[in-house]
Here is the input.
Amino acid sequence: MVILKNIHVRPGERQMLRLLSIFACTVLLAANIFVRTPAADNAVVYFLSPAEGETVTNPVVIKFGVKNMSVAPAWVNADNTGHHHLLIDVELPALNLPIPANQQYRHYGQGETETELALAPGQHTLQLLMGDAAHIPHDPPVFSERITITVR
Ligand SMILES: [Cu+2]
Here is the structure.
């Protein structure tokens, strides 16, 4: 404090410091604004099918499995429940933000536990990630192994 008192701050710099502190507060707020839903430490999500390394044909039937957690539609907000997200040829997203929604990050917000997809021939990676009512991964996050399949 004594050191700060002795530093001479000109009016322009004072304005800059004020803006910087507002910016810092905004960043801190944004980081905490998404409250993550708790999940059981032993919650597991996995593929019932296809299997790692499997060669499949279109339409590809993908079945989602979950243990020690319940599947619920996106509008249900309860601890240790969530809905599936299928990640296709993409890395895990930020785990403290809503999961993106596009062709690579697919939401199963009705509480679906399987889907049928038409995938281009060749290799693809698939991964499951649970999300809560706000489509945010749980704390701790519940995601599957990333599997590689080949579509003929
Ligand atoms: Cu979602």
Summary: Residues 8 and 60 are 68 Å apart (CA to CA).
